[in-house]
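Hey, I'm writing a tutorial for new members on how sequence and structure tokens pair up, and I'd like a real worked example in the thread rather than a made-up one. If someone can provide the structure for the chain below, I'll link this post from the tutorial.
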Amino acid sequence: MALSYVDNPQVQKNRWRILTAVGLFTFMSTLDGSIVNIALPVMSRDLKIPMNQAEWIVSIYLIMICALLLFGKIGDAFGKVKVFKIGTFLFVIGSLLCGFNGGLPLLLGARVVQALGASMTMSNNNGIITEVFPLKERGRALGLTGSFVALGSIAGPGIGGLILAHFSWGYIFWINVPIGILTIIFGHFILPKDIVKTHEKIDYAGFASFAVLIVSLFLGIFIGQQIEFTSPIILAAFVVALISAGIFVWIEQHVEQPLLSFRLFKNIDFSLSLLCAFLIFIVNFFFNVISPFYLENALGLAPNLAGYSLMIFPIVQVVVAPIAGSISDRIGPEMLTFIGLVLISISQVGYMLMNLQTPIWLFMFFVGLVGLGNGIFQAPNNTIVMSSVGVEDLGIAGGINALARNLGMVFGISLSTTVLYAAMSRNYGQKVTGYIPGHANVFIAGMHDAFMVALVICLIATALTGWRMLKYRKIA
């Protein structure tokens, strides 16, 4: 047996097919974090539940993914491909169950199964690709993986709107089933057998404390939006999160084989790239949450027309990302990440200027611009993350990378709605937790404040990346 996938002729012959199999599941698992947003009003009506309960259909999926995303360490120990394959099966089962209208408890339980499978695939996808592709093609390959991630995480409202125009809401989940089954069959013949296995003892105590930290933190944030953040139950959730964080850090510093090796964060390229990815996914989900309100409620567009408008983002990104990855292989990733973030920052300024009189073509221009910026940024940034660790840490690095991305999504949802509703409440003169029919001006005022916060976050990421680029130029 070859010592690595790069030395294995059969694996190298199939490397682009392997990328396709991994990418399809990456697309579906990230898609299901955002596709439900546009369907929530319909699901709320069909399930006979208020909107604040319907929002848990989105939240529980992202919370559980974040809580479980350290499956990369398990992939390092027992084989990334093996864990990935188990995850694909669980994700398809969860998707099948999600489509049945059996009430909110069944749907939330099915979303947990979905999230378990998604976390297993998302924690190991970048590690598999980094092992399979030689260094000279790695940027392009990770760029394509980044395209699948971006396509899934941003295309949700667009694809969801198109499905809802013709079918019931169950099909936004059931569309995963035939695609997933075909991908599982394809992967069975294409995905290689695992070569790198550390067989390390798994830090289950660290795993449990981290899961409690994530769940209690975001339960506190999401429930706090509906009641008051000063409520005793919310304060108790935050205290549990703080205690769990302390326990997790203590465990990881004292256990022989920690779940999360803090030594990885001593690498400035690794840490800085993760931080920027986290910040940009927060920014992206400001757009993801607010744009359907703007298009459907404020401007009065039908869901399918809103979907067409929002599809520009992923279409542009999926075209640009592999090109950016290929350029990154030749000239290095630092300059490209900076250029991408500048473009994303400009797009946030554009969103801040949107109002009820803004022509739709101008909105679509800025949607395309943010897709261009993300396409240029994501692939080189992924390359920096995955190329800054050794082969024995690829699984955990991929898991942390996916964790940063999904934490960004959850923080983006919670922060954008918190800022939006606070600004709307201030403008309206009373507490607001949703769009107010007949008061589009109140929403526009809140939207402007929300995108101002998104711009500040984006500028922080841009400044950090610019500092790194200047540092590398001085070294050169």
